[in-house]
Task: inverse folding
């Protein structure tokens, strides 16, 4: 019966290929997407509006700030949901899994390499986060790199070692703090007389121009995103690798 | 128009990126529809997502354009705009002001389209989070039912439905049968009524009425004698013998007490 599924699959494929004939060619500067006023407005005015050289960061955190805020909330909710689904579910003792439990020491070469590499990774995470205005990077990327460093610790030793440094309650608190930072900057600009997430109004708090107020508010927002993403990435790994038991694991 | 050379040329050389995106999308779609294993479905979903990302990114490419970050001459804090600001400050006195200027349409062509990059940036991270959530659900299903194969899951779900949500008619039938079975096999039902293991018996009774009598007798024996063995056999249940309904009921009951009996068993062994 499996071949029946090939019928919708190939019909969809035929439709898409038929439509692909009309798509613009690779790199065509006159394609509709590149000619749209939205895209050219972003390219032309980002420097004037926010003074951020990286357009992607400016669009992400300023023009589309509302979208990004709720994307962050989605990440946060996914972390909470994984916690709610798996927490305490893996307690059932299993005779078969006992035999897997190894008492072996962590490998010497691996642990020493990780010991050397993890600080560099974390420093690089901060660089990616803070330098997102002028180079590729930002809150999401920096957060993921940061979460990966904790995952690396958990892989090299075991999960308990990583949880000592970043326990799960702390993860959740940091994730919540990230969202509070983001929404807080939004509300702050609202209380200053603008609209929600209209960072320019923060100029009254910061001794800078309206554009530079946006610049710094984008940095603050990215830090909030980085907090949430980093801690949720690690919380996801910790829960999934140990079936919610939060010990042993991989 | 539809000559062989033309259309292959069109698809594989001029629009290779769209061809790859369609192929990836179809692989993902097929995996999501046809595979029975939930993990394989998730892998298909990830491939599907990758196809969409490729599509968006290939839309945003422009020939002879750089990444959407201002070059030095357009940088709002670069030397060029500082020089312009000094010029401005010299003409109109007052507080110093930077004056980054709006780009002209000819300069717009030098930068790739930033919007698809932004959309995909968030989509990737949210995709990771949702994939984690889906994996957690799969893990929970595996813990609860001992399998992530869809067809085995459906059989087990049907049976647990029959056990827990009895329709009034089914309740009446089961209550009519209870005294009959009591009279026939008093010892077994008496024992089972004292323990919570009784409920699976009724559910099975409804699910497969034809095979109920022999199977209940069998399950009683398995519960009484084979419990330690059945715990050890439990992981083997994933390897599927779904076709015959007769073989299933004892397996089900052997799963049910696994959680309860295994601590005792473990204590015994240790």
Result:
């Amino acid at each position: 019966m499996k071949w029946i599924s090939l019928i919708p699959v190939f019909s969809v494929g035929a439709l898409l290929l038929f439509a692909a004939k009309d798509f613009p060619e690779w790199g065509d500067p006159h394609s509709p997407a590149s000619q749209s006023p939205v895209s050219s407005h972003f390219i032309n005015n980002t420097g004037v509006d926010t003074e951020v050289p990286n357009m992607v960061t400016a669009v992400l955190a300023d023009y589309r700030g509302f979208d990004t805020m709720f994307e962050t909330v989605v990440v946060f909710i996914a972390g909470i949901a994984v916690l709610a689904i798996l927490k305490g579910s893996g307690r059932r003792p299993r005779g078969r899994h006992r035999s897997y439990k190894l008492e072996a020491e962590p490998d010497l070469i691996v642990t020493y390499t990780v010991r050397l590499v993890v600080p560099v990774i974390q420093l690089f995470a901060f660089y990616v986060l803070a330098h997102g205005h002028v180079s590729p990077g930002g809150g999401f990327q920096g957060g993921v790199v940061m979460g990966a460093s904790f995952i690396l610790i958990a892989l090299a030793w075991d999960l308990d070692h990583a949880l000592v440094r970043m326990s799960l309650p702390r993860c959740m608190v940091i994730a919540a703090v990230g969202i509070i930072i983001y929404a807080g900057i939004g509300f702050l600009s609202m209380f200053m007389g603008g609209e929600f997430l209209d960072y320019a109004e923060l100029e009254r708090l910061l001794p800078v121009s309206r554009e530079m107020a946006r610049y710094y508010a984008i940095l603050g927002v990215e830090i909030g995103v980085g907090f949430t993403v980093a801690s949720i990435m690690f919380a996801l790994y910790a829960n999934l690798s140990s079936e919610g038991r939060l010990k042993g694991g991989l | 128009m539809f000559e062989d050379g033309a259309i292959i040329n069109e698809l594989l050389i001029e629009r290779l990126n769209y061809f790859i995106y369609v192929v990836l999308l179809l692989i993902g779609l097929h995996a999501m529809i046809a595979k029975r294993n939930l993990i394989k479905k998730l892998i298909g979903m990830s491939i599907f997502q990758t196809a969409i990302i490729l599509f968006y990114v290939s839309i945003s490419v422009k020939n002879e354009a750089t990444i959407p970050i201002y070059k030095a001459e357009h940088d709002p804090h670069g030397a060029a705009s500082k020089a312009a600001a000094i010029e401005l400050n010299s003409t109109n006195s007052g507080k110093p002001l930077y004056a980054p200027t709006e780009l002209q349409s000819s300069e717009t062509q030098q930068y790739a389209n930033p919007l698809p990059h932004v959309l995909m940036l968030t989509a990737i991270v949210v995709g990771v989070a949702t994939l984690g959530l889906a994996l957690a659900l799969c893990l929970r299903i595996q813990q609860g039912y001992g399998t992530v194969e869809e067809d085995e899951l459906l059989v087990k779900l049907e049976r647990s439905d029959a056990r827990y949500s009895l329709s009034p008619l089914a309740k009446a039938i089961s209550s009519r049968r209870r005294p009959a079975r009591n009279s026939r096999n008093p010892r077994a039902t008496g024992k089972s009524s004292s323990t919570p293991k009784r409920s699976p018996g009724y559910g099975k009774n409804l699910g497969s009425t034809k095979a109920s009598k022999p199977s209940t007798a069998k399950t009683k024996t398995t519960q009484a004698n084979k419990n330690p063995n059945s715990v050890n056999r439990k992981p083997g249940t994933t390897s599927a013998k779904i076709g015959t309904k007769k073989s299933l009921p004892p397996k089900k009951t052997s799963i049910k007490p696994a959680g309860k009996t295994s601590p005792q068993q473990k204590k015994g062994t240790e």
Remarks:
- Chain A has eleven helices and no strands.
- Residues 52-85+107-182+208-244 of chain A form one domain.
